Structures are given as C-alpha cells and as structure tokens.
Amino acid sequence: MGDMFRSEEMALCQMFIQPEAAYTSVSELGETGCVQFRDLNINVNAFQRKFVTEVRRCDELERKIRYIETEIKKDGIVLPDIQDDIPRAPNPREIIDLEAHLEKTESEMIELAQNEVNMKSNYLELTELRKVLENTQGFFSDQEVLNLDSSNRGAGGADEPTAQHRGRLGFVAGVINRERVFAFERMLWRISRGNVFLKRSDLDEPLNDPATGHPIYKTVFVAFFQGEQLKNRIKKVCTGFHASLYPCPSSHNEREEMVKNVRTRLEDLKLVLSQTEDHRSRVLATVSKNLPSWSIMVKKMKAIYHTLNLFNMDVTKKCLIGECWVPTKDLPVVQKALSDGSAAVGSTIPSFLNVIDTNEQPPTFNRTNKFTRGFQNLIDSYGVASYRECNPALYTCITFPFLFAVMFGDLGHGLILVLFGAWMVLCERKLARIRNGGEIWNIFFGGRYIILLMGLFAVYTGMVYNDVFSKSMNIFGSRWVNHYNTSTVLTNPSLQLPPNTSAVGVYPFGLDPVWQLADNKIIFLNSFKMKLSIIFGVLHMVFGVCMSVVNFTHFKRYASIFLEFVPQILFLLLLFGYMVFMMFFKWVTYNAQTNFQPHTPGCAPSVLIMFINMMLFKNTPPSKGCKEFMFESQSDLQKTFVIIGLICIPWMLLGKPLYIKFTRKNNAHAKQNGQLTGNMELADGETPLPTGFSGGEESGGGGHSHEDEPMSEIYIHQAIHTIEYVLSTISHTASYLRLWALSLAHAQLSEVLWNMVLSLGLKMSGVGGAIGLFLIFGAWCLFTLAILVLMEGLSAFLHTLRLHWVEFMSKFYEGLGYAFQPFSFKAILDGEEEE
Q: Which of 221, 347, 605, 770 is the most buried (most CB within 10 A)?
C-alpha cells in the first residue's frame, strides 16, 4: 500500500567499478533491473566511445543469428520456447566460443546454400532441355526427309551456308517465360519481315526458380529460318528476351537418345539434391536447439556494452565511474550485485556505491504487480506523476471499475465480462506465451484484472438496478400490492398504484421488480440515476480536492493548504455539496405516509430549480398549501453559502501571489545578509556541499519555482488557475451526468434488442418455431456481444477514463515527472518481442 500511495524514494549514486569486473557487474545489475544509468559521455560521439568495438562485434553476431534464423524458418523448423529457462549473459570465454561456432555455422550454411542454388540451376537447365526435347516431337513430321539441321549442331560445319542457300531450313529451340511469348513472337516477325516460322507449346507444370523457389511458367518454342544472317538476329532477340536456347537434334533417334541421357543425369542430380537437403536439415535442426539461447545471450551482451559506454574512465584509466538512479529500498540489492560481479572475476579490489546529493528532480518509480500494473498504466497515459506526488492509481483500482459499472449496470452483461476476465486471469501463464496475438489482444490481456473488476462491479450495479438483459428478477417478492379487483384490472389499460396505499415496506436490495411493468419507469429511473450521478460526481471531486492536502503536507507547502485547498473545498461544498445535501434531505423529508401537506410528495420542490434560485437570489412562489423551502431559515443559509463561495474566488485569485510577493522580499533580504558572510565560513580549499532535492514550496511535487518569475506572470498564472477551477467545478459536475446518460442508453438498447429480436423467436411455435428461435437466439447473442458488451463497454470505458483524467485528477495531480527506466534484461527482451 505504501508503494502505491506515492512514488518510491530515489537516490542518485556514483558507481566505481574495476575494468576487469565491469562486464560481470553490469550483467548482475541487468538481472536485478533496478538501476537507471545516466550518460556521462554526452559530448562524446557514439563511434568514439570505449566499447564501440564490442558493440560492433555484437552487431555482427546478431546479423549471423538473423541469417541462420531466416534459413531455419525457410525450412519450417520450429524454434523452441525458452521463456522458463532464460540464459544469463555469457562470460568473455563463452563469447569467443559462441563467435567461432556462429562463424562456422554461417560459413557452412552459405556454402550449402550456394551449392544448392548451383545444383538447382543445373537441374532447371536439364529439366528445360528435357521439356524441349519432349515437346518438339510434334514439331517435326519427317526429319529424315526434310533434312533439317540444328543451328547448334551445324555451328562449325563448312557447308552449312551452302546447304541453306540450296533450300535447307535451320532452326533454334529453347524455352522462354510465358508472359514474354507474344512480344517475342511479334519481335521475330518484325526482324525477319515474316520469314521466321515459330512453333510453341506451353509447359503444363511450372518450374521452380533456383534462387527464390517461386514457380515459373514457361513455354517451349522452335523457330525455323533460312540464312546465317537471320540466325544471328534470332539469337540476339532470344538473348534480349532472356530465352534459354538448347541443342535439339533434327533426327528422331538422336533426340530419343539425348532424352535418355538427360533423364539419367536428372535422376543423379535429384539424388544429390536430396542428400544436400538432408544434410542442411540436420545442420539446421542441431543449430535450432541453441539458437534462441544464443540470441538472448548476444542481446544481453550488447546491452551490457551499450551501458558501459555510458560510464566514464577516471584519469588513471584504472576505474570506471558511472552515475545512476536507484530506489533507496534497492540499494542493498545493487551493492550485492556489485560484490557478486567482482567476485565472479576474482577481482581483489571491490566495487562500491556512493550516494550523492543533488538538486535534480529524480525519476518517478511506482512499484507495481500484475494486478496494479494495468491501473498504473491508465494513470501514466495521462502523465507520469511528479516525484513523490500522490499516486491516483491506488484509488483508481476501486473508483474506475465502480464508475464504469454505474454506466454499464446489467447483471447479464457484467457476467460476460466476469467470465472473460476470469478466463484470462486463471489461464494467464498459458496466455502470456502467445507471441503474435496482435495489439488488440495485448491490450485486453494487459488489462485482464481491470476487465474482471469492471465485470464484478457491473454485476453489483446490475443487481442494484435489478436489470438482467433488460429484465428484472423478483427474488424477494414485490413490495407493491394490487388492491384492484380482477374486472378492473382487465378492463383498464393502465392503473395507478398510490404509494400511500399500495407500497408495503421497502424492497430489501435494489429496485423493486414492479417498476419493469410501470409506464413511468423511465421517468422514475431518470430521476434516480440523475441524482445518483451528481452525488457520485461531487463525492469524487471532493475526494480529489482533499488529496491535494496530502501533496501540500508532504512537500511542506503548508501555505497552499490555506491559500488553495480551503477556498477550493469551501467553494465546492457550499454550492454543490449543499445541492447533494438537499437531495438527501428531500428523500428523507417528503413521503406519501405523512399527513402534513407541506411534506407530501406533491409539495416537494425541485432541487435543480431551488439551486438556480439560490445562485440568482430569486424566489419561486409555491403551490397552495406548500412551502417554498424545505426547512426554516433555508433562504438565509443559502445566501450565506453563496456569499462565502463568492469570497473564495478572490481568495484563490490573490492569496498565493500576495504570499509569494511577501516571502520573496524576506528571502531576498536574508540572502543578501548571508552572502556577506557565507563564503567566509568556508575553510581554504573547501567547496559548498550540494543540497538534496527539496520538495518545498519552490520545487516540490512538480510545483513551479517562482524564484525568477516576475510578479505579473504569477498573477496571470494564478488568474488562469482560478478561472479554470471555478468554471470547471460547474462543468465537471455537469460532466458526471454522463453516468446517468450512458446507463439509460445501455438499458434502452438492451430492452430494444430483447423486444425487437429475441421476443420474436419466443412467440413462435412448432418445429419451425424451434428452428427460428435457434437462429434468432444466435443473432441476439451476436448483437449483445458486438453492441452491448463490446461497443457499449468501450464507450463506458472511455467515459470513465475521462472522468478520472479530467474531473478527478485535475484537482490534485500535476503529472510533470518522467518515468524511471531501469537497465533491465527482462524489459529489453520483452520490448524486442513486442516489436
């Protein structure tokens, strides 16, 4: 409880570590995760720091691990999960072994990959050659008669030009990508002026790209031509269109023999490829068992050297000096980590920690657990608390789900939230292992305890409203009695039940179920929920204003209690607190059982009209036999309250600036006297000691320092705050009416879904009615979950968040701090997993 009430006390420490123990000491500190280091080398370029070589070395190791991991994922091998057994940072000897192992593995993988690409390229060429030989069978009718010569076979023949001049045809065979065939055919026709005869055949099965493995659709072609010049042109076009040319004998027997040889070579190459794949799989399977551990070890090692670059080397080059923020409760833990780090390397000179004084504002650290972390994140989203400022998250654990439930009050919908939240809480260890759940799932899972509490409070408010999927439960029996006979009930569409004769006692818990049948249900619920919203709103704001006293007391700003808190609380209580009092007084005083006419329900004055008349000093003439006011001397009391409230405005406006002006003169006079003798009190060679961080009037809790600020700006600043508080008190009170508005909207949507959807299925009969009811019930469940639970729940959540951020926290919370970000291996690894 003390940890949540305000942020923990922090200490600025100097750390003196021997160079040989620096790595292990920082490693131990990273495991504890309770130290935030400061950069002592701000003016030093990142590439000129002491451990930049080690950081680059770690980058190279990470590159090798990423390459191996890509190859493993390419083969579909699943990496083991090591969340329960995370390795520690490696020592220098392990780093050398790990580097050698990764170097060997990467070289082997690169060599295997290159050999595989080469063999797959050869396999692709042989496959294309086989397809060419097989598909060109139909291109030749009688090769022996035509006596066709392949351009490749006759390339060196002396009589080929003479033969072609005598009328013999030459041809070129090859394979081209299917999408380029039409452009290729058109280009051949243009360069030959129609003197090339092209035959083609599409391959049914796609081929695989050796480098990427993607399927490639190709087409076999044979181009017949005459003349050496035309042959050269065709070859140039084939080269331009990336077509692969292959030798194709014109003789049928020669082609058959060549196909047999190609098939034999393909079988041999397929066997070699299979053996290569098996060897690659064995290597990757062996590496995959240790790869996650290696990755974590390298990340930790890199984080250690990054942190060591924040240290400064002393002039003797024999000691590393670092500065860090440490929670005072964790100082023994840090000292033990330093001693363990020195002992791990057998250092004879121990490392030590020195707490130093500072005027700098420390970071804000609120120690949380898995229950409070979600609520703390809601507060930090508005702004990180100033150092040692009162933490609203402690009270938000209760007020947030309660105000949500006021707007979401339904027993059935609350049970859905309870079941969902309880499932995530009970199975949290299993669900926490889900890596790729998405951002929405991470938000839901991170707020699982918030969802559970919101559901529990919604169940409670649903019981108070007596609302279960827009229906009521008659558990204790209605306290309203029907005195009409049967014929009167059957012949009259509506009857009145006067409370003085029909109401017998009070329903034990929540609303009486008879209101579910009443025609004036909405009128009654509107009045009830509207007043309830104002009551909760004023109580919430009063609590927020009272919390400012805790901050003023802690930071020793006692003058602010009288100059800020007292006028603020008086203004709030004497106006809006009085309005809440009138609501309770009206409920207690006016009832149907009394015989005194001014206290009957018909004479009950409107609280809203009475409050308006109070602010405007007006009167409203009462009805005959009634009184304008609820009690004697109420008019005088109201005038007194308004006058005191008006006095509070200049009190807030001028009190603090005048106090600052008066204290500034005294402080300036005291400083001038102290400066005459202050330096004389120091001995030769002494320097003034730095003062600790003070939380006083000038520098506490995010408070603004007024030392050098001119008085004109102070007056303007205070005028803005005063106007903001006076106007916001009115607007914030009205803002809490959203509790009533959303509660009414939720109840009406639930009732519409019941009457317009589910009730239709309940009226059906027979087999068709059963099927229809099944389908309609499914649609009703879908609409209930999508609209009433998800959309309405999100709307109520956002409105509740606004009530806390604006209406509640603005009364005392400044949120001008900065978060404590310790050097923690766990935080580093979790952050990289989220990315």
A: 221
